[in-house]
From TrEMBL:
Full protein name: Homoserine O-succinyltransferase
Keywords associated with the record: Acyltransferase, Amino-acid biosynthesis, Cytoplasm, Methionine biosynthesis, Transferase
Site (Important for substrate specificity): 192
Homology family: Belongs to the MetA family.
Gene3D superfamilies the UniProt entry points to: 3.40.50.880
GO biological process: L-methionine biosynthetic process from homoserine via O-succinyl-L-homoserine and cystathionine
Purpose: Transfers a succinyl group from succinyl-CoA to L-homoserine, forming succinyl-L-homoserine.
InterPro entries assigned to the protein according to its UniProt record, in alphabetical order: Class_I_gatase-like, HST_MetA, MetA_family
Natural source organism: Photobacterium gaetbulicola Gung47
E.C. numbers: 2.3.1.46
Catalytic reaction annotation: L-homoserine + succinyl-CoA = O-succinyl-L-homoserine + CoA
Amino acid sequence: MPIKIPDKLPATDILRGENIFVMSEARASSQEIRPLKVLLLNLMPKKIETETQFLRLLSNSPLQVDVELLRIDNRPTRNTPTEHLDTFYRQFEMVKDRNFDGLIVTGAPLGLVQFEDVLYWEEIQTIMNWAKEHVTSTLFVCWAAQAGLKLLYDLPKRTRKEKLSGVYWHRIHDCHNPILRGFDDSFLAPHSRYADFSPEYLAEHTDLDVLATSEQAGVYLAATKDKRNVFVTGHPEYDVDTLHNEYVRDVGEGMEPNVPVNYYPDNNPGNPPIASWRSHGHLLFSNWLNYCVYQQTPYDLEHFSEANFTKDE
């Protein structure tokens, strides 16, 4: 089944060019089906690039998914045209009285910024608290995972001495957990962060199920037992050249970054990188939609209640 997004969204033509089934709003309205309502809170500066990446992963499901784009505030951005934001993005005030099947909170370039110094920290707190009563399952990605752990478990910010950048091997810890269904015992996924997530630290300070870890990158995937909150510390949505663009940007700013690990052939930035995580990214999002959202959410979102959710699969 397709994702349903506005016809004029830039991602529409890109995804159709990739032979991805994108349904028009007119066609979707004629179908006798209740699509999943998913809200994407996009915190990244290059919003068109990021929304396309996430929409691509959400499309790989037998479920019809109706995606709405949410912005954190109305400040202008130099990376995304104001017309695009005004046309396709909603303010929180426009959605706060509604319920959603799923919420995705993206990463943000705030790895070295203290939470209390983030300009929209109060807004993030408001939305995450709202989600407890209005969203079936929330997927926190990269910086959002760190923010979610702070707000849900009061974990302080933990920062690495050097940026973690590259594509790392991970191993799974519970092959029978539905979020990991179909995963290989080991898989590759990209990371680009300063945050530090060690398995021991999460085990000591939270009741999360730690589902996948890396010897080099620490915890990659964790979830609450009721699957209402899922934390992904990496970037399964990244395009093949996203890490490359970040590396070139950092070099241009005189930051002397390390070459992303296990990314360029022969570890040579002059060689075109190869994507080795696409299958994992699609499977992760498909599992999240199916087992954390579709299997848990009420048919009538107006009857949303925490009583709908159990710890059983």
